[in-house]
Amino acid sequence: MTEFEVTPWEVKGEVDYNRLISIFGVKKIDEKVLDLMRKVFGEIPFYVRRGIFYSHRDLDVVLQDYLNGLPFYLYTGRGPSGPMHLGHIIPIMFTKYIQEKVDTILLLQVTSDEKYMYHETMTKEQIKSYTIDNIRDILALGFDVEKTYVIDDIRHINYLYQLAISVARRITYSTVRATFGFTGDTNIGMIFYMSIQATPAFLGYFIDNKFKHCLIPAAIDQDPFWRLTRDIANKLGFPKPSQIHGKFLPSLKASGKMSTSQPETALYLSDDKKAVRRKILDAFTGGQATAKLQRELGGNPDICTVYAYYKYIFEEDDKKLMERYEKCKSGTILCGECKQELISRVCAFLQKHQENKEAITESDVEAYMLDNKLKFEELIKAYEMLR
Ligand code: TRP
């Protein structure tokens, strides 16, 4: 068994996603949930069909209530500690899909405070510029401005603080220490931070009290936050937030997830054609040592990082994906061909993305910001009901 470790701040080794389900105490998406999804979305969503979003907490309750006329809102987020790569936008694109299907609001938290406190060598200036840049990347994916609220923790702390202290008062130091593995060297900001990440799981009820639930699509490494948020939700008078958990987009090298600390393992949203080409040509594949051997023995798509990109993002058609899989196994398609086609798909995607991002003005961004959408005095007044 290969060792791995998953925390909200670090993922090491080859992740065994099934074992994570039992370690975290979450549920696999089963037939019952699939059936509810068919009813709510009219189909099984792409990321679920591909097994990329694969586990959950109380998703069945949220979907069933939705079918009974009780709406939910969405909450997801991004930690602005560097430029964004393709892996980072998968949960965000999935969230957008759900938002459009069920026509609901989304709270999108950008955790400038978390990244400032965690990365002790980064400056406030750096964090601020990643915050702005990342928000532009996210908005380039095309969110409904009427229904999408962007929260920058540092900028919007006055909108969050009353909720955060109500959360903080109910979580002990020993719980946080045990859940996140904090030690005596951990700064006290990180200990309090938990309560900031919990706030959007409740804030939506103040925006519109028609909501019955909050659903959080996120990569599975964030689950420890949700576990603690769920533990205190009822004590605060709110429903427990529900989750749907995603896997990580594999690195372009042999193992592990894409990582900002190893630029050659990831495709950044800002990469130019040259970089995309270089990284993909250099990627780890499931191919044989020579073309001759590959024709004879076939390749192994199950361990191939190039195939993973088709599966996660760049081949929408299930049938065509299956064909690629079979052609690889039988040796009728070689790695070079697979890589060339991926290069052109990635370049087309990134070019469009970069154009969209370029077109976003400062005032476009401002229109999404929480403080331009919520009346502060009214919110503060409503917060008085908090115990
Ligand atoms: N902690 C997350 C990160 O480092 C950012 C985040 C905040 C988030 N709230 C979230 C991610 C909700 C997913 C869902 O990336």
Structure write-up:
This protein is an alpha/beta fold and 387 residues long. The protein contains 19 helices and nine strands. The chain has two domains: 260 residues, HUPs (Rossmann fold, 3-Layer(aba) Sandwich), CATH 3.40.50; 96 residues, Tyrosyl-Transfer RNA Synthetase, CATH 1.10.240. A hairpin with a 2-residue loop joins β1 and β2. The N and C termini lie far apart (47 Å). The model has no long low-confidence stretch (mean pLDDT 96).
> What would you call the quaternary organization?
single chain
The total beta strand count reads: 9
CATH fold field value of the largest domain = Rossmann fold
> Low-confidence parts lasting 5 or more residues at pLDDT below 50?
none
CATH architect. name of the largest domain? 3-Layer(aba) Sandwich
On the 0-100 scale, what is the average pLDDT?
A: 96
Which series of helices and strands comes N to C?
EEHEHHEHEHEHHEHHHHEHEHHHHHHH
Topology:
Layout: E1 4-7, E2 10-13, H1 17-24, E3 27-28, H2 31-41, H3 46-49, E4 53-57, H4 59-67, E5 72-78, H5 86-102, E6 106-110, H6 112-118, H7 124-139, E7 148-152, H8 157-168, H9 173-180, H10 188-198, H11 200-207, E8 213-219, H12 223-233, E9 242-246, H13 273-281, H14 291-297, H15 305-314, H16 318-329, H17 335-358, H18 362-366, H19 376-382
Helix pairs in contact: 2-4, 8-10, 10-12, 13-17, 15-17
The site of tryptophan has 13 residues, from strand 5 and strand 8.
